[in-house]
Each structure stands twice: as structure tokens, then as C-alpha cells.
Design goal:
The chain is 69% helix and 0% strand. It is mainly alpha-helical. α1 runs antiparallel to α3, α2 packs across α5 (98-112) and α3 (61-79) packs antiparallel against α4. The chain starts with a helix and ends in an 11-residue tail after the last helix.
Length: 171
């Protein structure tokens, strides 16, 4: 793999949220040999895996992640026009692979949620109220982004002209 393709790959992974920077725990030193790190958690049971699959489907987590792939790939494609279209098509297809995503999600969810918690959340998302919450999330996120952008603009304007009171009138 060329250096340019490796860079695009890393940026794509970070942009999609597929990779996060590892956090060192109190018992772990970054770069320490594996023998000094805490042991990995046991693999989740088949019932726990099934509950996690049910949760990520009911919550729409997989669909949202797959939808983000097209946006990120389009942005990367625009910044790296020298790669052939087939590379991007293959890359996007691999990132949209539901089974591959589930394989990555299962250990993450299992590490943070018990099987009972996972089943309870899945039931919530399948309930009428849970469906309403899911439907409202996109609008809430968009409105929150807009409110944050206004805050940033107002703060910048207030910083440029310090004698100006904040937009909400408070001091």
C-alpha cells in the first residue's frame, strides 16, 4: 500500500469513527509489553452477542454508521483525486459490510453493557417512545450543531469587540 493510500486510510478510519485513540488505564502504560497489561475480558456469550446484534439493529447504530461512510468517502475522494474510482468503491463497500461492523461493535458493547442492559435498551428502542426518541435524534443533533455554531460566532464577535455584551444579554 502506498504512503498516500495509507494516509487516506487512516484519515478515513478516524473520520468514520472506526478508530479511536487508545486510552491508558491506571494499570496500563502506553507501549508497555502485553504481559504487563490487564488481561482482556472474556468473550461474550452467544446470548449476549445476539442481544448486542438486536440492540445495534433496533437503535439504528449500524445504519447510521453505514450512512456516514458515503459522506466520508466523498470528502476523502475530493481531497485525493489521484486514486482510481475503483479504489474508493472497493473501500466504501468494505466499510459498509454489516457483518464486519457487527464484529467490531460486539466487543465494545459487551465491554460496557451487560446482556440484561443490552436487552433492555433494545426493547426501549423498539417501543413507541424509543422510536420517537430515535426519530428526534437527528433533529436534536442538527439543532444542537446550529446552536453551538451560533455560540461560537457570538463568542468570537464578543471577543473582537469586548465592550459588546453577550447576545443573550447576560454578563
Amino acid at each position: 500500500m502506498s504512503a498516500a493510500l495509507r494516509t487516506v486510510h487512516a484519515v478515513a478510519l478516524l473520520s468514520c469513527g472506526f478508530v479511536a485513540a487508545p486510552e491508558a488505564s491506571a494499570d496500563e502504560t502506553p507501549g508497555a509489553p502485553a504481559a504487563t497489561r490487564p488481561p482482556a475480558a472474556a468473550a461474550p456469550s452467544a446470548a449476549h452477542v445476539a442481544a448486542i446484534r438486536e440492540l445495534v439493529e433496533a437503535s439504528g447504530a449500524l445504519d447510521r454508521e453505514i450512512a456516514r461512510v458515503d459522506v466520508v468517502v466523498a470528502q476523502l475522494r475530493a481531497t485525493t483525486p489521484n486514486l482510481p474510482p475503483a479504489v474508493w468503491e472497493n473501500y466504501a463497500a468494505r466499510l459498509r459490510d454489516r457483518e464486519a461492523l457487527l464484529a467490531r461493535y460486539v466487543p465494545v458493547y459487551a465491554r460496557h453493557l451487560s446482556e440484561d442492559d443490552t436487552r433492555t435498551l433494545a426493547a426501549f428502542y423498539r417501543s413507541p417512545f424509543g422510536r420517537r426518541v430515535l426519530e428526534a435524534q437527528a433533529a436534536i443533533a442538527a439543532d444542537s450543531r446550529e446552536a453551538s455554531e451560533r455560540l461560537v460566532r457570538d463568542a468570537l464577535e464578543g471577543s473582537i469587540t469586548p465592550s459588546s455584551p453577550p447576545a443573550d444579554g447576560s454578563h
